[in-house]
Model the fold of this input.
Amino acid sequence: MTDAIRIRDLAWRAGPDFAIRALSMTVPTGSIYGFLGPNGSGKTTTIRLMLGMLPPADGTIEVLSHAIPRFAHRALARIGFVPERLHLYQSLTVDEAIRFHRAFYPTFDDAEAERLRGRFGLREDQVIGRLSKGEAGKLMMLLALSQRAELLVLDEPTDGLDPVVRREVLAALVEYVESQRATVFISSHLVHEQERICDWVGVMDGGRLIAELPMQEFRSGIKRLRVAQAPTVHDAAPFALLSREAVTLHDENWVVRGWQPAMQEWFQRAGSEVRAVQDLDLEDSFVELLRGARGTVEERR
Amino acid sequence: MFTQILWTQLKWTRIPLAVLAVVTFAAPALAWRLGAAGYQGAASEPMAIMVGFSAIGTVLMVTACLAGFVLVAHVWNLDAAAKHVYALSLPLPWSRFVAMRFGAGALSLLIPTLALWLGSLFALMMVQVPPTLHTYAGTLALRFLLGALLAYALSFLLQYVAGRRASAVLLVLLLSGVVVTFVLSVLGYTRLLDTIGHAIVEWPGPLAVFARDWKLVDV
Amino acid sequence: MFTGIDSRSPTPLYAQIADRIRVAVASGELTPGEGLPSVRALATRLRVNPATVVQAYRDLERDGIVEMRQGAGSFVGDVPAEARARERTAAARRFVRQMLTEAARLGLAPADLRVALDRELPESK
Done:
């Protein structure tokens, strides 16, 4: 099965400062792909490029087997897009917005739209410009889900929403994924939410994708080691050292990537000992990964 | 798709369209009343009628230009408010989307045109037009439509090419036009100016429809 | 039964879900033959990836605690009494192990824990 999204060596420039460079990303069909990254790392720009809204400076983009941006309009017919900020026409009512949207998507399911409208508590005659942030978010999600899209592209879909609305939106999303076997691409900085739902993760920093792997591997692959009599040199280690920090006079905490239990030997040969191995949750893994990617290992005292 | 675009555009521009319709409907009747008031003699005389209705031309030309311009700006601003993200996310090529917007706006110009035609007929009913004069209600309405469409098309081109900077570009163009005309006339190139002027304004020049007097009643 | 499923915990989500069901079966809260929520319903309720629920159910099926019947859903299997008693013991040990890991991280010694346990546990009748 071809991938839902394939990006190779994407580059884009806006002024002297910001650029997306050599970005390669693969989103497998049927996966729930979590796009993580700090603010300003280029996530929204990548999404715009992916949907053909911005012209790339270099590289290839293929979404649902269509070349972007040349055939973006063909791909968009099968994509449900929920942007970061409300993009719908503010002077229309909820009902008018649904009717407008429906005219552009032949696969639009009216009954589903009506069902979701009731479930989300949106009244037909509400003017979009007067909706609360939560209601606006729900409406955008409603439109994307009612399209029966094969690919959902969501940019911070729950950011700024209160917990109740967030749960409603996520529940609707999970339900959709289970019944439609759609591919979902979620960009969010709400790491714990991503952790529950996503089975793939791509980490972006400074305009580049610094890691892309299954969620399980990401979580289990990064560990915090409690090391006694830590060796001073770590160049030849069989794992990737992301950071080290002294905790007591003799002990250090090392955060490593690609740890295998057999690597204890390496420490023993260096005259040290690994006292404990701890899994990091996604948020900590993510932070450590960024630290590791941004420069040489810091020696923190 | 086009139906929805037309419907939403009509909804968005309902106020400008309503105002335009009122203006164009009232223009013939008002023109006659106001025009004939300054005439010495009976308002029912042929000359009075002609003078009365002749004032209508300029007003309608200006209205036609405004109609074209306002319709474009209003709709474009609504799209631009959300940075065109919604329009760009719709599954059709940008060119098709723009074409549909253009078509919808052009169709909506039929509303003030129709109002003008009806207003002309209404005004003419109140007047006893002598057999020596002819009425041109239909022609007038058609001229209005063509003038408005021309203004609309030019504004549309300007807006969609220059984007946010459309008003600035327009200002620059107008100012340069004024400056160039002034410079040429001061330097004595009056014949050149005349030729250019004629080329633009006489058929088949672009502004030909605005050249001659728009008359409702004529010999 | 499924409150507090935490993505931050070192235990994978599917294991947390499976453990809750295991304990519920062991304590009798879920009786043999009783229907479990559908994958869709549970995933939606917990807002987790449906594959996670499927993995939990498959794990339980492998251990004979759950039966997944094509088209009908998932049901609690026929688990005999001693198996349930064994599961209760196992669940208690899992819980204590987690507690001990956390205690070690906080620097608490086993002796401290024993004293605390004596003080906190109600007197057995």
In short: Residues 105 and 174 of chain A are 22 Å apart (CA to CA). The interface with chain B takes residues 51-53, 73-77, 79, 81, 83, 85-92, 96, 99-100, 103-105 of chain A (CB under 8 Å). The mean pLDDT of chain A is 89.
